[in-house]
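User: Study the fold:
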Amino acid sequence: MTPPRIDALQYANWSESIFRQMRAGHVDGVHVTITYHENFRETVLNIEAWNRWFEKYPELIFQGFTADDIALAQATGRTAIFFGSQNPSCIEDDIGLVEVLHRLGLRFMQLSYNNQSLLATGCYEAEDTGLTRMGREVVAEMNRVGMVVDMSHSGDRSTLEAIEHSTRPIAITHANPSSWHPARRNKSDRVLQALAESGGMLGFSLYPHHLRGGGACALAEFCEMVARTAERMGVERLGIGSDLCQDQPDSVVDWMRAGRWTKRRDYGEGSADAPGFPPMPGWFRDNRDFGQIADGLRATGMTETEVAGIMGGNWARFFGESFGSLALRYKEAAQ
């Protein structure tokens, strides 16, 4: 069987066209965002929408629950869809909802999205106070049920404390080194070192705001950054988390940034500063272009084994460690 191809973060405006592009790009597994600022009931409504897509396009996609579903996707020529939340709003203030959502298929949850949450501090806050009391309890519960702690939008102190407190390796599913491009969302060398030493995973982001030069970033420059990061972190700790927001209207960016927490906007109606999606690099328009990244990594001198790991093999291993076979997990829990 060929090595798997996995994308650790997408938030597209889902459609049959995108699902077919996933298949054309031989993408075996995708971690999809089902929650930004939604509460529990609204998250369930989003799961209902996905259930309809699974019912309508069973020859293209199906819901992934365990790492074994990556192999099933490859064997059946489909894409396994794994649910994740970019904010803990879906559990509201109820730790019991961690297990409920895990049973519904949630496999990743960020502890904060840019702002302070009940669990941790986001990367846009002036002061990072680290994990809260509830945050430590929720991390322990996520560890227990097999839900990945994702710190992609969190501040440095909160991320380091999550790495230290978690008994399972955590993930930063979509970000790049800040030493390469100092975006607020990219990650410091200190965080990346701690992530690697703890067995965690970094997914490289293709979102233009996270790239040096934005949408004009060259494939060779991106892949060279990946190669240099592999030298520091170890190639086995790296994958792709494209942060692809394909076909979303610009109004979604406002929803991402503002949610329900503010009425104020830093721009006027019709302003050139109004939020919108920047143009993607020409070498990554959609899921059909993953092969170009693989070619770019080979051009840096990486071996086929190293390229295969970054393109999906490393995520497949991490999935197995984090949410492997249900039967195995229940057996271990009974011992």
